[in-house]
Amino acid sequence: MLMAYLCWCYRLSTDGHDFFTSYDEVYDSFDAMGLQENLLRGIYAYGFEKPSAIQQRGIVPFTKGLDVIQQAQLRTGKTTTFCSGILHQHDYNVVECQALVLAPTRELAQQIEKVMRALGDYLGVKVHACVGEIIVREDQHILSVEKQY
Question: How far is CA 73 from CA 2, 86, 91, 119, in A?
Fold first, then answer.
């Protein structure tokens, strides 16, 4: 079976013109990506031993602050790719919401929350999923009053 993995990086250039580029760097291990030690601990504790093809190409562009468009088949590690990038860029000295991930379905939002929690376990990161059919005021309270995100 042929499997395609695409990873495109996008950044607004300083002269105001947009450009796309294919990201060609491939990393054979998580250790080679220059990720924070506690993030690596979370990745390995979650059960990963070696990065998948999409992770080999996609994690580092996220950590460099590039906007990444990635496409791969189901169950190939796309969620872990962007969660790792977000957690690597997180400033752990700032106790407020630093990242917002939008998902089209409740199930995907809950999957992202689960992965983010697991990968961030050794980082002390706080994660909260705001999904429909939950009282909005509870979400507002969690995100603002407790100041733990």
Answer: 10, 21, 31, 21
3-state SS record for 62-103 = HHCCCEEEEECCCCCCHHHHHHHHHHHHCCCCCCCCCCCCCC
pLDDT tens sequence across 4-61: 444 454 444 555 555 555 677 899 999 999 999 999 999 999 999 999 999 999 999 8
Structure tokens at 2: 């042929």
Query: pLDDT at residue 111 above 80?
Result: yes
* Phi/psi of residue 4, nearest 5 degrees: -105, 135
Instruction: Give the Cα separation of 70 and 23 in Å (integer).
Output: 10
> Degrees (nearest 5) of the Cα angle 60, 62, 67?
135
Neighbours of 142 (CB within 10 A): 14
92's enclosing H/E stretch is: none
Cβ atoms of 85 and 39 within 8 Å: the answer is no
Q: Which CATH class is domain 6-145?
A: alpha beta
Give CA–CA dist 16/27, Å, rounded.
Answer: 31
Q: What is the predicted pLDDT for the residue at 149?
A: 41
